[in-house]
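ok new one. same drill as before - structure tokens go in, u give me an amino acid for every spot. 402 of them this time. try not to just spam alanines like last time pls lmao
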């Protein structure tokens, strides 16, 4: 109660006419992190619900916890395994020094050692994202006199989980700045953007600094270690080569392989998706559409076949577990702001993403991963999809009453 009284006492300084009114967004941001907002509707015709923006964003962040935990473990496991293979005594750095000084070590068979090592990569990236992106959020909120929206918490977490653990921190700051400013704020902020901000920032880094976002040397943060992702192996040698490289379908399903921080585990993503569907934050129509588009086009390509392109033979159940397909399906496709808003349109929107993801993976040799580009492409066409759905409804009703 003492903290609540403190906020109530200083609030007059930040409202209109107060001494620090231009800093109200900063005050409001801190207060709403700790307490539920006091502004509620009291009379008709407003609809009242306990589900506000803060609660929605909190649910989405909670849904990413399984992916975060797996990101910590898998990043540490991949790093410790690589160090053991190369000879860990020849490597130094503050992370290894700290692990040794704390008596934790670099044992890849220790869950605690793996989690701690992974945390030492995850935490700097996340802190950098929060600081760099938060500065832009507060800046735009202060200039516009608006509150700082909780949507950035979701954007920051999703952005971090799409990055490789080896990415330089200055690129992290640059990528989230691009995503927040040009992917959201220039259009008016949360709720007015037509592109997913987290994917916009990642796409910028992918095209601006491809050496740090693709290839065989970036996925395990150990200098001198090289290893291709499951999708990279499939693109060059075919899906049958995964077994020869020690990757089974179950390894891919649970995420015991190289990849971006939070994208490797289909199992962790499914837990998050189940939570979002149960709380009705995610719309099942987009999920169904995306799965249908992916499965349908995969089966078509399997039937067509190719002597020169091994990706034609990849079954749909492998498309499901490799690359960022499942992460994108659970957390990006279901993002409501940049998606279609009509029920029928959501099916088409999801199907377009599933179709485009497989098409880019299989038919475009320059991009072994297609989910990111497919979602951004569908974001652009979401308003057009809704337009045609609405027009079709108008015509159908007009004929009914003719």
């Amino acid at each position: 109660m003492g903290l609540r009284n403190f906020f109530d006492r200083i609030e007059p300084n930040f409202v209109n006419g107060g001494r620090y009114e231009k800093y109200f967004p900063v005050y409001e941001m801190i207060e709403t992190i700790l307490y539920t907002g006091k502004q509620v509707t009291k009379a008709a015709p407003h609809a009242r619900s306990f589900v506000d923006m803060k609660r929605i964003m909190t649910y989405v962040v909670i849904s990413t916890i399984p992916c975060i935990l797996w990101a910590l473990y898998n990043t540490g496991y991949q790093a410790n395994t690589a160090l053991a293979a190369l000879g860990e005594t020849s490597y130094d750095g503050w992370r290894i020094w700290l692990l040794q000084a704390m008596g934790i070590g670099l044992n890849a068979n220790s869950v605690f050692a793996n989690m701690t090592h992974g945390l030492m990569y995850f935490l700097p990236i996340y802190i950098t994202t929060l600081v760099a992106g938060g500065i832009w959020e507060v800046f735009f909120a202060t200039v516009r006199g608006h509150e700082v929206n909780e949507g950035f918490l979701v954007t920051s977490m999703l952005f971090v989980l799409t990055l490789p653990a080896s990415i330089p921190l200055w690129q992290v700051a640059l990528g989230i700045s691009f995503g927040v400013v040009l992917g959201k704020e220039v259009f008016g902020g949360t709720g007015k953007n037509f592109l997913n901000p987290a994917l916009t920032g990642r796409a910028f880094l992918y095209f601006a600094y491809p050496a740090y976002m693709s290839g065989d040397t970036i996925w395990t943060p150990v200098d001198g270690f090289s290893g291709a992702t499951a999708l990279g192996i499939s693109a060059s040698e075919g899906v049958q080569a995964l077994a020869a490289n020690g990757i089974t379908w179950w390894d891919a399903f649970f995420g015991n392989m190289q990849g971006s921080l939070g994208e490797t585990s289909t199992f962790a993503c499914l837990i998050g998706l189940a939570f979002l569907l149960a709380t009705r934050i995610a719309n099942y129509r987009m999920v169904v559409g995306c799965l249908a588009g992916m499965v349908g086009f995969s089966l078509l390509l399997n039937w067509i076949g190719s002597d020169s392109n091994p990706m034609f033979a990849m079954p749909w159940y492998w498309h499901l577990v490799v690359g960022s397909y499942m992460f994108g399906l659970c957390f990006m496709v279901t993002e409501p702001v940049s998606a279609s808003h009509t029920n029928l349109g959501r099916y088409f929107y999801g199907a377009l993403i599933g179709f485009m993801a497989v098409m880019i993976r299989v038919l475009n040799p320059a991009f072994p991963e297609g989910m990111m580009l497919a979602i951004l492409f569908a974001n652009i066409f979401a308003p057009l999809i809704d337009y045609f759905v609405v027009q079709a409804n108008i015509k159908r009703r007009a004929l009914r009453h003719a």
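Residues 111-144 form the longest helix (34 residues). and btw The CA atoms of residues 9 and 370 lie 52 Å apart.
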